[in-house]
């Protein structure tokens, strides 16, 4: 991002001395894009260290900015060891950048793991969560934040949504992380407002905007301006779901559980329809097609919400419990949004899609869940694992109750003794996945704010009998 109309110039090379750099130049950016710019680096050599330097050129004078430097490693065409990290929930519950605490320290802990890439599972910002100068933490101590005007209230204007992304970039840990680690983003609710769906009624904090559709439109524009992702030509909505291939061992299926959902309801409908939509029909068709076609050893399904955890959203006008995620508090056969998940899991079994693992965040604690038909009311699926990681510098909560429809078992969980515990309490978690090129085994570690392992699990790839 620059501060005036300009072009982004990116040079990259496989050597840090930039002896033979390739050069890419963006179109001119301006205030209409918040002076953000991107270039699409296609055709990078496989399995190489890529060093890059980026600078802006003033569109009028041609004056160049100071350069920014970074590096990454490209995906391989042949099997090689892979390591990536994931998590979600950044700068929530009023816990922002605290210089006395060392800023968003968990990003530095993730950087030190030297991952091939980072999967942000959503809640990249908290547009509905102002950052005050001080917050009283769970132990009575004072948490002191850096503050900005845009983060002093809930985001309503496009300028305020953009300011949420700019706020996060004030953190030195995050900037250092961004310079070294390629990223895959998805979104959840707080990029717009808490628990948003088409039925969302905005509370009294929203004085300028009362219409959820207007809020979503502005939020999506800001998200797409700052997200490190391609936006296809002619894509007016800005599609977020996509597949990211990382060599022969790994495909990542990035889901969008927000844009196509129906309203948050009691979630007890017996047949699929507009009320039960979660992924939506188009995304579901895409996911089935891509899963069936995938030849990668491991298929990671990146979900912005967990499958079997209760995530409530208050009550409706009739006093019925309303649900924010998939689970509905009924341990019986699939109902409501569970019908889509049942359809997907049955397809995975029927199509013999092997080695699927679900990764998610959202609930602000870490957990390992194992799903098995022998424990489930709905039984047409193969056993699978779901791993939960977060938050990444936000309040900690949990644990949430389980819904029995798909037979989940809590194999591990770690949550704070006090709800909304500050990052200082230590209940901040990220996940790490390592795939061994020789054996094909996938190992998952859940790590705390300092990078220490609190739980690990190794999964062996399916082998024909």
Compact summary:
The protein is α+β, with helices and mostly antiparallel strands. It has six helices and 21 strands.
Low-confidence stretches: none
Tell me about the largest β-sheet: 7 strands, mixed
Structural class: alpha+beta
Give a count of the beta strands, DSSP E runs of length 2 or more: 21
Rg, Å, rounded: 22 Å
Report the CATH superfamily of the largest domain.
Alkaline phosphatase D (PhoD)
Order of helices and strands: EEEEEHEEEHHEHEEHEEEHEEEEEEE
Strand fraction band?
15-25%
The CATH architecture of the largest domain: 4-Layer Sandwich
Portion of residues within helices: 10-25%
CATH fold label of the largest domain: Purple Acid Phosphatase, chain A, domain 2
**Name of the level-1 CATH class of the largest domain:** Alpha Beta
Instruction: Enumerate how many helices there are, as a single number.
Output: 6
Shape: globular
Strands ordered across the widest β-sheet: 10-11-12-15-17-16-18
Distance between the termini: 54 Å
Q: How much is the average pLDDT? A: 96
The tally of domains stands at 2
Protein name: Alkaline phosphatase D family protein
Pfam families: PhoD, PhoD_N
Domain PhoD-like phosphatase metallophosphatase: 86-445
InterPro entries: Metallo-depent_PP-like (IPR029052), PhoD-like_MPP (IPR018946), PhoD-like_sf (IPR038607), PhoD_N (IPR032093), Phospholipid_Metab_Enz (IPR052900)
Mind explaining what this structure looks like?
This protein is α+β, with helices and mostly antiparallel strands. It has 2 domains: 1-74, no CATH class; 79-459, 4-Layer Sandwich (Purple Acid Phosphatase, chain A, domain 2), CATH 3.60.21. The chain has 6 helices and 21 strands. The strands form 5 sheets. The chain has a 7-stranded mixed sheet with strand order 10-11-12-15-17-16-18, covered by helices on one side. The protein has a 6-stranded mixed sheet with strand order 9-6-5-19-20-21, with no helix packed on it. It is globular. The N and C termini lie far apart (54 Å). The model has no long low-confidence stretch (mean pLDDT 96). It holds the Pfam family PhoD_N. This is Alkaline phosphatase D family protein.
């Amino acid at each position: 991002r620059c501060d005036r109309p300009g072009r982004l110039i990116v040079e990259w090379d496989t050597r840090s001395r930039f002896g033979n750099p390739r050069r890419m130049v963006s179109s001119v950016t301006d205030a209409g894009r918040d002076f953000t710019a991107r270039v699409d680096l296609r055709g990078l050599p496989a399995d190489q260290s890529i060093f890059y330097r980026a600078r802006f050129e003033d569109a009028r004078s041609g004056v160049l900015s100071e350069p920014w430097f970074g590096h990454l490693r490209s995906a391989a065409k042949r099997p090689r060891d892979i390591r990536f990290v994931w998590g979600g929930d950044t700068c929530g519950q009023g816990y922002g950048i605290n210089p006395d605490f060392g800023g968003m320290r968990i990003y530095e802990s993730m950087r030190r793991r030297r991952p091939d890439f980072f999967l942000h599972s959503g809640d990249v910002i908290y547009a509905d969560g102002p950052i005050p100068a001080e917050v009283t933490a769970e132990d009575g101590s004072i948490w002191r934040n850096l503050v900005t005007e845009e983060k002093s209230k809930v985001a309503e204007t496009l300028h305020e949504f953009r300011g949420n992304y700019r706020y996060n970039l004030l953190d030195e840990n995050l900037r250092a992380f961004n310079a070294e680690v390629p990223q895959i983003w998805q979104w959840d609710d707080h990029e717009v407002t808490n628990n948003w769906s088409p039925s969302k009624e905005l509370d009294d904090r929203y004085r300028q905007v009362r219409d959820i559709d207007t809020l979503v439109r502005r939020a999506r524009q800001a998200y797409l301006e700052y997200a490190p992702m391609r936006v296809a030509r002619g894509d007016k909505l800005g599609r977020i779901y996509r597949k990211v291939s990382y060599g022969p061992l790994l495909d990542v299926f990035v889901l969008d559980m927000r844009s196509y959902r129906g309203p948050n309801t009691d979630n007890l409908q017996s047949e699929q329809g507009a009320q039960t939509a979660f992924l939506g029909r188009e995304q579901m068709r895409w996911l089935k097609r891509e899963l069936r076609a995938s030849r990668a050893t491991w298929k990671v399904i990146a979900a912005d919400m967990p499958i079997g955890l209760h995530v409530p959203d208050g009550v409706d006008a009739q006093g019925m419990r309303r649900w924010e995620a998939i689970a509905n508090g009924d341990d019986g056969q699939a109902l409501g949004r569970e019908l889509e998940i049942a359809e997907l899991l049955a397809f995975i079994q029927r199509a013999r899609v092997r080695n699927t693992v679900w990764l998610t965040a959202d609930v602000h604690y870490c957990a390992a869940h194992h799903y098995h038909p022998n424990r489930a009311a709905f039984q047409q699926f193969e056993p699978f694992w779901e791993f939960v990681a977060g938050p990444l510098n936000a309040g900690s909560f949990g644990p949430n109750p389980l819904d029995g429809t798909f037979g989940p078992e809590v194999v591990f969980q770690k949550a704070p003794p006090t709800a909304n515990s500050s990052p200082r309490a230590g209940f901040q978690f990220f996940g790490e996945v390592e795939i061994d090129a020789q054996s094909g085994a996938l190992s998952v570690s859940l790590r705390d704010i300092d990078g220490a392992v609190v739980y690990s699990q190794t999964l062996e790839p399916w082998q024909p009998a």
